[in-house]
Design goal:
This protein has 10 helices and 6 strands. It starts with 27 loop residues before the first helix and ends with a helix. The strands form 2 sheets. A 4-stranded antiparallel β-sheet has the order 1-4-5-6, with helices on one face. The protein has 2 domains: 47 residues, no CATH class; 196 residues, no CATH class. By secondary structure, the chain is α+β, with helices and mostly antiparallel strands. 42% of the residues lie in helices and 11% in strands. Keywords: Membrane, Transmembrane, Transmembrane helix.
């Protein structure tokens, strides 16, 4: 009836045909009723692989969407899928850097209108410019620049519309402030001549140049070390920004017009800029912010 010769409980030898061990009292029939344990490999081979496959089917789209929220969509489906699987090679960080460099220039322009001076870029200058950031002044919806409550914006969008002292890789910017000569003497400056020849933008979709003959202008050079973290290398990103300190008015201006012009200059934060070292432009950076806005947070 029972062919076991060794007790499952104590390991002693059993008498022939015994079901109860005389040494420890272990019932050998209970050991027979207990199913034998199987390894994980045996379980998977027996059909447990379905749980693994079904889990991946459910998890991969979710993980891919989480990655896509960071990278944004690519120019085509294969590129988007590759970014979802392996990352975008720093594209999102580069676009964030461009966006934030523009925010520094715009906030500096607003500050210069309101305070009649350019802020110092020593110490914690980002806190000084924080009140002049786009999200604080104009709202938070990308491209449109309108929103009743800045706090309604998702955190990833607020980050793009805040003035920060670090770029998309989390490294400090390098900022150089250079006053421009007054009146016609500005056009004798070799650096100014080169900037005007290269071209400057007045907004993210229009090209224009500053009226350097009137008012006090400064040139901001905002630099990021890029993906490699080293300055003076090929992947450096630069934004050149011309900022008017204060605001210039004619004596014949109506007082109400002056007030409107001041408010408009402060709200827009107009500066004249050019992006160097990137294949992307400010429109690309804004579209990244737009995509993040429409993502589920």
């Amino acid at each position: 009836m029972l062919d076991r010769v060794i007790c499952e409980g104590c390991g002693k030898k059993l008498q022939a045909g015994s079901t109860i061990c005389l040494h420890c009292g272990w019932d050998q029939t209970a050991a027979l009723a207990r199913p034998e344990s199987i390894s994980v490999v045996e379980y998977i081979l027996a059909g447990g692989w379905r749980l693994v496959v079904y889990g991946l089917i459910i998890a991969l789209p979710f993980l891919g969407f989480m990655r896509l929220r960071t990278t944004g969509p690519g120019p085509d489906l294969p590129t988007t899928l590759r970014w979802m699987a392996f990352g975008d090679g720093g594209r999102a960080a580069e676009l964030e850097t461009i966006h934030r460099m523009h925010e520094i220039g715009a906030a500096a322009a607003r500050y210069a209108v309101r305070e009649m001076e350019l802020p110092s870029f020593d110490g914690e200058w980002e806190e000084v410019l924080a009140r002049a950031a786009t999200a604080r002044v104009r709202g938070w919806i990308p491209l449109v620049f309108y929103g009743a409550d800045t706090g309604m914006a998702p955190a990833s969008v607020r980050e793009l519309y805040e003035v920060r002292s670090v770029d998309g890789w989390g490294r400090p910017y390098q900022i150089t402030v250079r006053p421009i000569a007054r009146d016609e003497a500005a056009f004798d400056d070799e650096i100014v001549i080169a900037d005007l020849e290269e071209g400057l933008q007045a907004t993210f979709f229009t090209v224009d140049q500053p009226d350097l003959v009137h008012g006090e202008w400064v040139r901001l050079l905002i630099e990021s070390a890029g993906a490699d973290g080293e300055f003076d290398t090929e992947d450096d990103l630069r934004m050149i920004s011309y900022v008017l300190v204060g605001h210039v008015f004619r004596l014949l201006y109506d007082p109400s017009v002056i007030q409107v012009e001041i408010e408009r200059a402060y709200t827009i934060g107009r500066h004249y800029y050019r992006i160097e070292g990137s294949q992307y432009d400010l429109i690309d950076a804004r579209l990244l912010a737009e995509y993040r806005l429409t993502s589920i947070h």
